[in-house]
Amino acid sequence: MEKQRWLYITLLKEFLLCWIQFKRLYGKYRRGELRFSDVASFVDDKDPYSPMYYLKELSHRLFRDRNDKVPSEGMLLDLAIGSIFHEAMKLRENLYQMEVYRPSFESFREDVSSLGNRLKEEFLRIGKRAEKGVKEGIQEIRRLFNNTLEQIRLFMIRIGKNNPLFIRFIVKEEKLLRQAYGRRAFEGLMAELFPQGETAQLKESAFVFMESMYFSEASKLWERYLRVNPEDQEARFFNLYCQGYNAYLENRFPQALKMWERALEMISGVKHLGGYLERIMEISHKITREAFEHGKSKEAQKARLFLEKLSLKLRGGQDAHL
Questions:
Q1: In the chain, which end has fewer C-beta atoms inside a 10 angstrom radius, N or C?
Q2: 51-97 pLDDT, tens per residue?
Q3: What is the pLDDT of residue 111?
């Protein structure tokens, strides 16, 4: 189940990246600059690293090549992605016709002796069909992408509930989502995903990161939350807790103790301490032992003083929250 959730997130990201790349191609088309090489780097039926090929295969793996029941929105999404892929392949071939075959024909179209009238007419028809195919094909791909963006939005809402991986994706890829949907549509998506508002979203997401041991990301969210609610003492405690834990994981032990010492000053404003103080104490004991074992007497002494201060806090009644 965890692997499947990860693949869902990968599919969402790859789709949005393909959409943004196509928007650049569409811009070139509008300016009359679109070339076969541009589309060839976007879609290929043989290159597994081609963006659209990779997206199509990932979609089939998730929604088509399975023995269990596939949700209807997944089947629809797979059909849409497959259609985009095949339309893009047709666009690629039409551009090839226009760039490779038509110039060759144009170079000797007036030479009646080397080219029969019927063959000349056929090449003219092929050229016109290719030109029309490019015009119609790129518009069809654009429509498919736009309509599938709505399906992706609904899919994100369905899989986003209580999914730490998805919350992490939203936070880390905010810029990508804004590029793909635009500012207003992105804000609408966030309102649907987090109907309780932006600050509640930041708080909820920060706790999700903490539970998943992503303390650096959680700290960034607490800092964003504190820009809106600078007086929230509980948020300050959790931000310092995350900074300290991240420093510990990076073997910056003095910095970890420094952050946690500052966090102790905030605990009077924390309603639900859970096991956070116990966890700080457990890790501080490890830091103390390691400092002694490596002959770092000053660090060991600081760690011991911190442990004494933490014990006093607990004995002073804060452990009633645990």
A1: N
A2: 999 999 999 998 887 766 777 778 889 999 999 999 999 999 999 98
A3: 58
Q: Is the pTM of this model over 0.70?
A: yes
Give the mean pLDDT of the chain. 86
Q: Which of 160, 183, 214 is at the close of a domain?
A: 160
Give yes or no: residues 283 and 154 share one domain: no
> CA dist 128 to 39, 137, 233, Å?
20, 14, 69
Helix (H, G, I), strand (E, B) or coil at 280: helix
Residue 104 lies in a domain: yes
208 Rama sector, left if φ>0, alpha if ψ -120 to 50, beta otherwise = alpha
Q: Are 74 and 66 in contact (CB under 8 A)?
A: no
- The answer to whether position 213 is within a domain reads no
Domain that holds residue 34: 2-160
Picking from 160, 192, 212, the residue at the C-terminal end of a domain is 160
Residues 16 and 119 in one domain: yes
Question: Could you give the number of structural domains in the chain?
Answer: 2
Let me know whether 52 and 152 are in one domain: yes
Contact in structure between 176 and 98 (CB atoms under 8 Å): no
Considering only the C-alpha atoms of the chain, give the largest distance between any 2 of them, rounded to a whole number of Å. 105
Query: Is 80 exceeded by the pLDDT of residue 171?
Result: no
219 vs 185, 201, 255, CA distance in Å? 27, 14, 15
Residue 162 predicted with pLDDT over 70: no
The interaxial angle of helices 183-193 and 198-211, nearest 10 deg, is: 70
Regarding whether 146 and 254 lie in a shared domain, the answer is no
How far is 9 from 83, CA to CA, in rounded Å? 21
Is the Cβ–Cβ distance between 166 and 173 less than 8 Å? Answer: no
106 pLDDT tier (thresholds 50, 70, 90): low
**194 HSE (CA, 13 A, CB side):** 17
